[in-house]
Amino acid sequence: QQQQQQQQQQNNSNLNSLFSPSSIISVGDLGGTYELVFSSSVNVVGLRGYLPNRETIHFDFEAGRMFLKVETFPFLPTIDITGDDLTWYDKFHTLTYKVVGKKKQSRWKILYADESVMAADSSVTGLNVLRRIQPSSNI
User: Fold this and answer.
1) Alpha carbon distance 139, 114 (integer Å)
2) How many C-beta atoms lie closer than 10 Å to residue 7's C-beta?
């Protein structure tokens, strides 16, 4: 019982350090192109996070822009969305941008990022999990 409690405390400690602001995530870890593989916002329509479309997102911090391409059905055109004023707030592990034509700023709290995956809590779409496609190419 005591060993199990110690293991649980260690697991909790590992999770806390993973999601704490003291974890080392820098703007250099985030730039590049990703494919969205899960979004909690999809649960609203009953699909339980499954995306029936392909969404690729590119963060270009040097240019201060976010580019999102949404592919739905082969017979429909892609939807291209651009975000301006892409900004990284190192202290808060948060990036923000404003979608062209929208008044409200989008905010992503980065929960985890490495060379192949990113997890973020978005002010617009909830929990997102993204798979890195390329570190620094446009989509």
Assistant:
1) 20
2) 10
State the residue for tokens 């190419």: 137
Are the beta carbons of 66 and 86 closer than 8 angstroms?
A: yes
Q: Provide the residue-wise pLDDT of the chain in tens; the chain has 139 residues.
A: 676 666 555 544 444 444 444 457 888 779 999 999 988 876 555 555 455 688 999 999 999 999 999 998 888 899 999 999 999 999 899 999 999 999 999 999 999 998 899 999 999 989 999 999 976 544 4
Residue type, 16: N
Helix (H, G, I), strand (E, B) or coil at 102: coil
List all residues 6 or more positions away from 19 whose beta carbon is below 8 Å from its beta carbon.
111, 112
